[in-house]
Design a protein that fits this description.
Mean pLDDT: 87
Low-confidence stretches: none
Distance between the termini: 30 Å
Oligomer: single chain
Shape: globular
Helix content: 40-55%
Largest sheet: 6 strands, parallel
Radius of gyration: 17 Å
Strand content: 15-25%
C-alpha cells in the first residue's frame, strides 16, 4: 500500500529562498497538491508574485531565519582561527534559530532538506524533525557541503570534520533523497 500523503511539509533552505529556484519549485509543487508547506529560510530577495500570493492566502508559511548569524568568512585570509570561530558561531546561531522555528510548528509529516549546507541542518532535522514531529526526512542533494568548504579556504581539520558529519548523518537520517543530476546520484550510491 502507498504511504499516506503528509498534510504538512517543512522545506529547509539555509539560504535566500528567492535564489533557490529548485526549492521554490518544490514548495509550489507540494502546495499544488493541497499540502501546507512551511519554509525555514532566509529572505533577502524579492519572492515571486505567485509565492507571495500563496503566503498571503495562508497556504504557504515562511519562517525567516533573519536574526541568525548567516555567513562565514569567504576565505581564510583572516586566519584559520578567525575562520573557525566564525564558522562555529554561525553554526550555533543557525542551530538555535532552526530548532526554535521547527519546534514551534504544528506536526510536520515530511521534512525536505536542501543540501548543502548540512551543518547544522542534518542534526536539527534528525533531532527536531524525527524526534519531535516524527517526520519522514528527504534530502535534496545539490552538492556536498565539505567540497564547498574546500573552496573557501576552510582549515583542513574543519573540512575533515564536516565531511565525516555529512557522510555519517547523510547516510543515516533520511528516509529518501534525490539528486540534482544522475551523475551525482550514481556518485553518492557508489562512493558515499
Amino acid at each position: 500500500p502507498r504511504a499516506p500523503r503528509p498534510r504538512r511539509v517543512c522545506v529547509i533552505v539555509l539560504g535566500d529562498l528567492a535564489r533557490s529556484p529548485r526549492s521554490v519549485n518544490h514548495v509550489m509543487c507540494l502546495e499544488s497538491q493541497g499540502i501546507h508547506v512551511t519554509v525555514v529560510c532566509y529572505l533577502h530577495s524579492r519572492l515571486s508574485p505567485a509565492l507571495v500570493s500563496l503566503v498571503e492566502q495562508g497556504r504557504v508559511s515562511i519562517c525567516n531565519l533573519e536574526g541568525s548569524y548567516r555567513s562565514t568568512p569567504a576565505s581564510s585570509s583572516r586566519g584559520k582561527l578567525a575562520y573557525f570561530i566564525s564558522a562555529v558561531t554561525a553554526s550555533i546561531s543557525r542551530l538555535l534559530a532552526m530548532t526554535l522555528s521547527m519546534a514551534r510548528q504544528p506536526r510536520i509529516g515530511l521534512l525536505l532538506i536542501q543540501n548543502p549546507p548540512c551543518i547544522p541542518t542534518f542534526a536539527v532535522a534528525w533531532l527536531i524533525g524525527r524526534w519531535i514531529h516524527d517526520a519522514a526526512i528527504v534530502i535534496d542533494w545539490h552538492n556536498l557541503a565539505f567540497t564547498i568548504m574546500q573552496s573557501t579556504g576552510a582549515p583542513p581539520l574543519l573540512i575533515k570534520i564536516a565531511r565525516l558529519y555529512e557522510r555519517i548523518l547523510g547516510r543515516r537520517i533520511h528516509d529518501d533523497g534525490f539528486c540534482v543530476s544522475n551523475a551525482f546520484s550514481e556518485f553518492l550510491d557508489k562512493e558515499w
